UniProtKB/TrEMBL annotation:
SMART domains: PGAM. The lineage of its organism: Bacteria, Bacillati, Chloroflexota, Ktedonobacteria, Ktedonobacterales. It comes from Ktedonospora formicarum. Signal peptide: none annotated. CDD domains: HP_PGM_like. InterPro entries: His_Pase_superF_clade-1, His_PPase_superfam. This is Phosphohistidine phosphatase SixA.
């Protein structure tokens, strides 16, 4: 199993923050990421994303099919399941995916599209790497999504 942690591209400063779209620079960052993913043959079976506009835009630009995109509260700031604890985040992501009839343990490649500092917290928990830049992705390998919940991912 491969997990691709993807941080949304640069946003246009807007209030409220949840409605901030990608800036032209952010669109270019995500288009560049899509080119790299395509060149490397990285084709996620599912995109799990925050409900914030810029994260959804990022997933929409990357996915070849909109039906692969699923929004989750666990990835959305200011929701009841959003957490700064990595194990809790992963457990919540798994539970929400199951409610949408997605068995994450059966997916070969999963893209998680979200925000800082949550993505770096997940990355540190799963692999010990420190941060994710804007408009970039980091591939994480694991035997299953359950293994990620236990902090057993590798770069």
């Amino acid at each position: 199993m491969d997990i691709i942690l993807i941080r949304h591209g640069t946003k246009i400063p807007t209030s409220p923050d949840k409605d901030a779209p990608l800036a032209p620079e952010g669109l270019a960052e995500i288009d560049h990421l899509k080119e790299r993913m395509t060149r490397l043959g990285i084709n996620p079976a599912v995109y799990l994303t925050s409900k914030y506009k810029r994260a959804k835009q990022t997933a929409e630009r990357l996915a070849f099919d909109a039906s692969l995109i699923h929004t989750l509260n666990a990835l959305t700031p200011d929701t009841d399941t959003f957490s700064s604890d990595a194990q809790h985040m992963l457990t919540s992501i798994s539970a929400e995916a199951k409610k949408q009839n997605i068995d994450l343990n059966q997916q070969a490649v999963i893209a998680i599209v979200g925000h800082e500092p949550q993505l770096s917290t997940l990355l540190r928990y799963m692999t010990s790497k420190l941060e994710i830049g804007k408009g970039s992705g980091v591939p994480v390998k694991a035997d299953s999504f359950d293994a990620l919940i236990k902090g057993k991912g590798t770069l």
